[in-house]
Design a protein that fits this description.
Number of strands: 8
CATH architecture: 2-Layer Sandwich
Order of helices and strands: HHEHEEHEEEEEH
Largest sheet: 6 strands, antiparallel
CATH topology: Alpha-Beta Plaits
Strand content: 15-25%
Structural class: alpha+beta
Number of domains: 1
Length: about 190
C-alpha cells in the first residue's frame, strides 16, 4: 500500500548507498586525464561525524589496521577535525586504484560496524595539468552518487567546469542527478 501511495503522490525512493560505485572511479580518472586534462593527486578523504563510545573507537582502530596491512605505496592516514566537528581521514597512495580501495575500506568498515549513518562523503582530488586548478569528485555516501566540485578563490565555484566534467564522465560513474545536492565543501584537507 505504501509503495502504491508513493507512486500516486509522485514520490520516489531515495537513492541508496552503494560503495561498489567507488570502484568505477579509476575508469573516470582515465577519462578525466584524456578528456579534461585532469590528473589524480592520489589523495582522498573520507568525512564522517565521529561518535562517542568504545564501539566507534574500535571501528576506527579497525580501519586503521586494515590500511596499515595494505603495503602498496599507501602512506599512513592523516586525521583532522573541521570547524563543523566532522572528522576527515585523508589517505595518499601511489595510484588511483590503490587509493580507491583504501577509501572503500574506510567506508565499508564504518558501514559494516553500523556507523554508516555517520558517513557524509568521500572526496578525491584532481589537478589540471596546465592551470594547476584543483578539482574534486565528491562521493555522497547516503546517495551512492558522485558530483564534480571546482572551487575558485573567494569561496566561489566554477559551475561551467563542473557541468563540463559532468558531461565528460557521465558514462563512467554514477552522477548525482539533483544539482541542488552538489554542495560546495570549502577548506578541504586535500
Amino acid at each position: 500500500m505504501g509503495k502504491l501511495r508513493d507512486i500516486i503522490l509522485g514520490r520516489t525512493a531515495p537513492a541508496q548507498a552503494n560503495l561498489d560505485n567507488l570502484f568505477a572511479l579509476p575508469a573516470a580518472g582515465i577519462t578525466l586525464e584524456i578528456s579534461a586534462n585532469l590528473i589524480s593527486t592520489n589523495k582522498a578523504s573520507v568525512c564522517f561525524k565521529p561518535a562517542s563510545g568504545s564501539a566507534f573507537a574500535n571501528t576506527t582502530l579497525d580501519f586503521k589496521a586494515i590500511l596499515e596491512m595494505e603495503d602498496d605505496g599507501q602512506k599512513p592516514p592523516v586525521e583532522t577535525i573541521d570547524s563543523m566537528g566532522y572528522k576527515w581521514v585523508t589517505i595518499e597512495a601511489d595510484n588511483l586504484e590503490t587509493l580507491t580501495t583504501a577509501i572503500h575500506a574506510v567506508n565499508s568498515t564504518l558501514e559494516s560496524n553500523n556507523f554508516g549513518p555517520q558517513l557524509l562523503c568521500s572526496v578525491f582530488a584532481f589537478t589540471d595539468r596546465d592551470s594547476a586548478q584543483r578539482v574534486y569528485l565528491i562521493y555522497l555516501y547516503k546517495r551512492g552518487t558522485f558530483y564534480p566540485f571546482a572551487p575558485l578563490r573567494g569561496e566561489r565555484r566554477d559551475n561551467e567546469r563542473e557541468l563540463s566534467l559532468q558531461a565528460i564522465i557521465k558514462d563512467d560513474i554514477v552522477l548525482e542527478a539533483d544539482l541542488e545536492r552538489w554542495f560546495p565543501i570549502w577548506d578541504l584537507p586535500l
